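Feature request disguised as a bug: please show the residue count (301) next to Probable alpha-L-glutamate ligase in the output. Example input:
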Amino acid sequence: MKIAIMSRNKNLYSTRRLVEAGQAHGHDVQVIDALRCYMNIAVNNPTIHMGGKDLDDFDAVIPRIGASITFYGSAVLRQFEMMDVYPLNESVAVTRSRDKLRSMQLLSRKGVGLPVTGYANKPDDVKDLIQLVGGAPLVIKLLEGTQGIGVVLAETQKAAESVIEAFMGVKANILVQEYIKEADGADIRCFVIGGKVVAAMKRQAAPGEFRSNLHRGGSAELIKITPAERATAVKAAKTMGLNVCGVDLLRSKNGPVVMEVNSSPGLEGIETASGKDIASMIIEFIEKNSKVGKTKTRGKG
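Example output, currently without the count:
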């Protein structure tokens, strides 16, 4: 097979591991920078070009689209779908997962456990919005934030009011969520491939920090998850329509709650913690499922 990996940096750990795994399985693997691609949206003959060459002979594409290029990266992925190239994750699922508000609305509709969450544009009563999620302490999140950036813990009512008003003053879109105190600065990353949790790790925040992201200095260790946590992760992935994803859970007094579903999860932390060859599992999933025309949406979403 010839496999394209959509990534802006071929030296990133995740990209490098996918290339190595693909080549180890005997495939021709090429890393493609989505921003360098340009498209011909022609009737019956859509094409993608990069550097003067026509990218028309790929069998499958693995999207590793950074949050900052979601719009254009998803457009390139849709073009691949229109060309009958099998996507590891479809464009509709990727864009759905990147929209935090839409994600939570979809998960809520399917009965997936979530923290109590509020959303508003210009609330007449900020205090009432705060009370909707149980009052302070609470967590305030930028909709566009990634890797823990734009996430604030407001420990008092006054602090919460000030932060919300500040974000709204610069016209930022935010979510307000209850603070799961019993999680104690830890979350669980479940790595899902093809409807199965293949590995899970506990991420613990650094001392004095409530965000457990590894990019923020958090640590990771292998963990055994409960049947409820496994079922929640699988249901969240299915709801988003993602074949491969990272589902971030918190252990709350009411059971597991989903914080985020990541359509381009990093491999370094989970491979290091679990000792598993996750990259090869992804390639093997593509080998089993890659078929011309199998994309459900065919670029229509």
